[in-house]
Amino acid sequence: MSTKIRLDNLNIHFGANHAVKDVSMEVAENSVTAIIGPSGCGKSTVLRSINRMHDMTPSARVTGCIMLDDTDIYSRSVDPVAIRRRVGMVFQKPNPFPAMSIHDNVIAGYKLNGVLKKGDADEIVESSLKRVALWDEVKDRLKRSAMELSGGQQQRLCIARTIAVKPEVILMDEPASALDPISTLKIEELIEELKERYTIIIVTHNMQQAARVSDVTAFFYLGEMIEMGETRKIFTNPEKKQTEDYITGRFG
Amino acid sequence: MDKTATRKNGDGIFRALTMLFAFSILIILLIMAGEMVWESLPSLRKFGWGFITGSDWDAVQGSFAALPYLYGSIVSSILAILLATPLSVGTALFITELAPHKVGVVTASLVELLAAIPSVIYGLWGILVMTPWLQTTIEPFLIKHLGFLPFFQGAPYGVSMLAAVFILMIMIIPIITSITKEVLLAVPQSQKEAAFALGATRWEMIRMAVIPYGRSGILGAVILGLGRAIGETMAVTMVIGNTPQISLSLLSPAYTMPSVIANEFAEATSKLHTASLMEIGLILLVVTLVINFMARLLLWSVTRRWKGGTP
Ligand SMILES: Nc1ncnc2c1ncn2[C@@H]1O[C@H](COP(=O)(O)OP(=O)(O)O)[C@@H](O)[C@H]1O
Ligand SMILES: [Mg+2]
What we know:
A: about 250 residues, alpha/beta, Rossmann fold, 6-stranded mixed sheet, 4-stranded antiparallel sheet, B: about 300 residues, mainly alpha, MetI-like fold, two-stranded antiparallel ribbon, binds magnesium ion
């Protein structure tokens, strides 16, 4: 498998706070990579650097290099908006647009490409909702507000909205942590399906979840990447003592 | 035991006292409205609905009708709102979304400073600076290039409906801007990030996440501004020309409800004249109360939605 994303000596500061320290890692195409570690260790911060979400935080400073295929995404000549269309993101708390219908939520990002015919829009809405297994639950109420859906449905709607833009990479920041167990299971199944087409990086503090869904796991601690490897190996036979302590529940 | 009992008592007294104050405001309002109805009875009896459909205002003949004042108030306020809203929303967006933090803070306090200027100062500036400028520059320009429209016909007087519209616009920009700013600041970060993550530019993010989320709050701010514009007296009186006529042309002088009350109350000799001015006051009171009520309702529905915890 070819490398989709490469982080090289990534450092991220918020003012004087050195949140991410010298992180280097490679993410293979069409794989699921889990980032685990105790709260505050910089998981979200790393994830958000991959689609330049820190651009909106004035105090944030990102140094080092992130390559998406052959593009240095922090290069001056690169348009962050173009990067975010290639690298979609799903957040911890479902955040559909409350003033929009279910249909309009799904199509919101895709529509930014320009005007589209009504038939095209309907087709994209249907295929995106089918891919997140939400179509049967909402097909009779596409014009209703997205806020009428349950939390789990809202999160799948947000995933549908993300894949409607046809990204190459999907970043997920604890996408199931606000959901009930059944919705969590559905999201996990979905990740399994999505990896056929997309490269996925998922942050989770739920280790069982990391073990279930990911091919590769990276363990972070205090802003550093302690260890990264095949998920089965990280969870059965980690090399570093800190990793072992964490996965056996001795801290965090 | 004793001590807590007295303390509880003190609490009760305090509550009763504050409640009394709160109620007394409502009661004052009711008494005022009642008095106004009472005082305007002669005019209400004599003219009936004719008072708001007729245009004749003649103290000598004793015939009074208020349509030109209603017209002047409503038209000047609505046009002022139409001009002030895009400016205010734009300024609020600049402060909250576009400007670097410090520039935003400075801009916001400058805008709020505008609200602190007494309206008579606006009026002075209007009469000494703005109306001459309108008369020599803007109005001739409008007559020349847009004179084929009924709105820009006639001679350039300077004092005019147009002058009132501009003055009101400047005076209500601060209130609309600062409320809109609060509304925009309340848009959750998660909504903005949702738009950015879909590949929205800053402007697209504003259209996708910020405006729809703040829509009813912004509408509330606009209606509050409308209420302010309709009630404004001093500055408008100084620039509108105080002529009770209904003219489509914005270049003609006009008159508003608060202006006629301020101008004529001291000299009103007949009972009917006083009663008619009172009735105009009553109409003004009702109109502003309704407008403010609507604005509060809208703003309230927004804040309730935020507290309800939707994202
Ligand atoms: N927007 C921000 N501004 C300032 N500091 C931040 C910001 N986001 C994260 N941090 C800091 O970066 C560190 C890592 O946070 P984060 O990546 O959110 O941790 P995790 O997702 O692993 O729980 C923390 O010390 C946090 O305080
Ligand atoms: Mg996090």
